[in-house]
Amino acid sequence: MSATTTYLPVSDDEREPPDTNRQRRRLVLVILIVVVLAVTATWVIAFSTLFGVRSVTVRGAHTLTASQVEDAAAIVHGTPLIRVDTGAIVQRVEQLADVETAQASTSFPSTVVITINERTPVGYVRIGARDMLVDHTGDQYRSVRTAPPLLPKFVVPAGSDARTTGGAVATVAAALPAALLKRVQSIEALDPAAITLVLRGDRVVRWGSAARSPDKARILPALLKQPGTQFDLSDPDQPFSR
């Protein structure tokens, strides 16, 4: 006796209409297209040279040349912009003696922008046969055979107190207007509280400490109009000359 197979009719509710199948296929196709586009965009932006570095723009360079800054930055041309390490660029550029601070950014489609703030010398110290330029922070940042003319010489003691005293002297020099700084032949200090300005023409200004240097610098031009060769600004509230 053979078995009999019984087929039950499929209800209309159990059948999937053709439209549903087409919608599913379309959805799968859309998802595949989105995935392919995302992978392609990621490759183009992050790995191809299409948006790679083609040029470097340097801003703020005066003493340095753009080529010197670009060489220090060591940017590999063709590197995708999104993978450029701007922090590492800044660290490398700031190793240049003449650079006080630096910033780096990217500009699509293919440019790296480096902006630097160069050190400005406010004086120099003589070391052996060469001069070391000093900026407003007191850093001795670059050796030159001869310091620029009309830049004051810093005379400070050597040893452990040299940096502290040199920083105080640099603070004084940085507070002086450019026209007045050119009249200063040297700034001398045995310690940070005993700073003296020697002006061209054998005039001497007792400055005292670097405290209230902006106030003292504002008063000095008027004080120098008074007769005498000795001037005292150690107390800016009671300046005098003799």
Layout: helices, strands, pairs:
Layout: H1 18-46, E1 55-59, H2 66-73, H3 86-93, E2 99-107, E3 111-118, E4 123-127, E5 130-134, E6 140-144, E7 153-155, H4 162-175, H5 178-181, E8 184-189, E9 195-199, E10 203-208, H6 213-223, E11 230-232, E12 240-241
Parallel strand pairs: 1-3, 7-8, 10-11
Antiparallel strand pairs: 2-3, 4-5, 5-6, 8-9, 9-10, 11-12
Number of helices: 6
Number of strands: 12
List the helices and strands in order: HEHHEEEEEEHHEEEHEE
CA-CA gap between termini: 140 Å
Beta strand %: 25-35%
Helix content percent band:
25-40%
**What spatial order of strands do you see in the largest sheet?**
7-8-9-10-11-12
Unreliable residue runs: none
Shape: elongated
Main pleated-sheet profile: 6 strands, mixed
Average predicted local confidence, pLDDT? 88
SS-derived structural category: alpha/beta
Please give the radius of gyration in angstroms. 35 Å
